[in-house]
Design goal:
This protein is about 20% helix and about 30% strand. With about 250 residues, it is of the alpha/beta class. The protein has one domain: Ribonuclease Z/Hydroxyacylglutathione hydrolase-like (Metallo-beta-lactamase, Chain A, 4-Layer Sandwich), CATH 3.60.15.10. InterPro entries: Metallo-B-lactamas, RibonucZ/Hydroxyglut_hydro.
Length: about 250
């Protein structure tokens, strides 16, 4: 049965949050399943406009830079010490070492913070597959100068690919063919070994029905990023503006 796959933009700013625009974070939902995808600075507050923490079915993190993962720290406190009764730790999918990284940030004594009380941690690897409620996730390793992943999310015959942060690479390219949309970073105006330009985002979107550019850096206006990408991509090109919802 076909269901709507929805992408809600919690924030898309980089490298730090801006007024009205947190860092990278998205809510992906289909049917009754809700997945927090990247947890950049400021996204936890926006997430709660749509879903309580204890209503999440899972969290997926592309890499451990703060503009994609910092709000896991405050989510930890919310899950364990706020007005939430957690039936079980929330599945957390992220790069190798994510649990220890969180524990080191949270610990201020010789005792390790019990991050596993809040999160059921699953470390990603190239080709990792998981089911989260009604969502099917396939993760591939990508080029970002550190352990980093892109993901293809599928539900009811619909599919969304999210690049995370990366340069054009085989791992991302393997996920895109036949996808309804590619949510792709377009960080800056010039090529980089760790990021896409808008033109490269358009090239990476070949085989997808739609391109949504995100993570547009401070040296490139979102409208310019859309225009530059549209010159290389035949389908619709849009910007992941904070608060926007895309129905696939």
């Amino acid at each position: 049965m076909s269901v709507d796959l929805r992408l809600t933009v919690l924030g898309s700013a980089t490298p730090h949050p801006r007024p009205g625009d947190p860092c990278s974070g998205y809510l992906v939902s289909a049917g009754g399943t809700r997945l927090w995808t990247d947890a950049g600075s400021g996204t936890l507050g926006e997430l709660q406009r749509h879903v309580r923490l204890d209503e999440l079915d899972g969290i997926w993190i592309s890499h451990l830079h703060a503009d994609h993962a910092a709000d896991l720290l405050t989510a930890y406190y919310g899950l364990l010490y706020a007005d939430i009764e957690l039936d079980a730790p929330i599945p957390l999918f992220g790069p190798p070492g994510i649990a220890d990284r969180l524990a080191h940030f949270l610990t201020n004594t010789s005792r390790r913070s019990p991050v596993e009380s809040a999160f059921a941690v699953h470390e990603l690897h190239d080709g990792h597959r998981a089911a989260v409620g009604g969502l099917e996730l396939t993760s591939r390793a990508v080029e970002h100068g550190m352990p980093a992943f892109a993901v293809r999310i599928e539900a009811g015959g619909r599919s969304l690919v999210y690049s995370g942060d990366c340069a054009p690479c085989d791992g991302l390219a393997a996920l895109v063919p036949g996808a309804d949309a590619l949510l792709c970073e377009a960080d800056g105006p010039d090529p980089s070994p760790a990021h896409h330009t808008p033109e490269q985002a358009a090239e990476s979107a070949a085989g997808a029905g739609r391109l949504i550019v995100t993570h547009v850096g401070p040296f490139l206006a979102p409208d310019d990023a859309v225009a530059r990408a549209a010159g290389r991509f035949d389908g619709p090109v849009e910007h992941a503006a904070p608060g926007a919802t895309f129905v696939l």
